[in-house]
Amino acid sequence: MSVNESITPEPILQLGLGFMASKTLLSAVELNIFTVLARGGRDRASIAAEVGLHPRSSADFLDALVSLGLLNRDDEGIYRNSPTAEIFLDRAKPSYVGGILEMANARLFGFWDNLTDALRTGTQQNEVTHTGAPFFATLSQDPVAWRNFLNGMNGVSTPLAGALASDFDWSGRQHLVDLGGALGAVPAAVLQSHPEMTGTVLELPPVRAVFEEFVARHGLSDRLSFHGGDFFSDPLPPADVYVMGQILHDWNLEQRQFLLRKAYDALPDGGTLIVYDAMIDDDRRHNTYGFMLSLNMLIDTEGGSEYTVADATDWLAEAGFSKVNSRPLIGGYTAIYATK
Question: 130 an active-site residue?
Answer without folding.
Answer: no
